[in-house]
Design a protein that fits this description.
Elements (H helix, E strand, L loop, with lengths): L6 E7 L3 E6 L4 E5 H6 L4 H4 L30 E7 L3 E6 L7 E3 H6 L11
Antiparallel strand pairs: 1-2, 2-3, 4-5, 5-6
Length: about 120
């Protein structure tokens, strides 16, 4: 059965992520890091011959330097609708060119059912 790429409801938490209830009854929940690592823009995806963005590790690598640089937590500074088909996220790391189409968001749904686990 084909899945819907039409959202029924979108809930946005700038410090946690995005939850989407789709018109076919499915629910998707995307954490901030998950969304940022899957930015579909040309520079992040490696289009036009540029190297793709390398996702940051979940855990910082152990280092001989006990004084690690403070890195602020990733946040969404703003989310804007793009027509009736997408959202654009303005990230706290200065990135804002990714347009997350509803089709893209549904394809990257992280739930077990969408990943083939159920």
């Amino acid at each position: 059965m084909p899945f819907s790429t039409d959202p029924e409801h979108i809930a946005i938490s700038k410090s946690k992520g995005v939850k989407i209830d789709w018109k076919d009854g499915h629910r998707s929940e995307y954490g901030l890091k998950y969304l940022r690592d899957r930015c579909p823009c040309a520079s992040c995806s490696g289009a036009h011959g540029t190297p793709p963005r390398v996702p940051e590790p979940d855990e910082p690598a152990p280092s001989a330097n006990p004084f690690q640089m403070y890195k602020p937590a990733l946040k969404m500074l703003g989310v804007d609708p793009v027509g009736n088909y997408a959202i654009r996220i303005n990230w706290s790391d200065g990135h804002s060119t990714g347009i997350y189409s509803y089709d893209h968001l549904r394809r990257i749904c992280p739930c077990d059912m969408c990943k083939g686990g159920v």
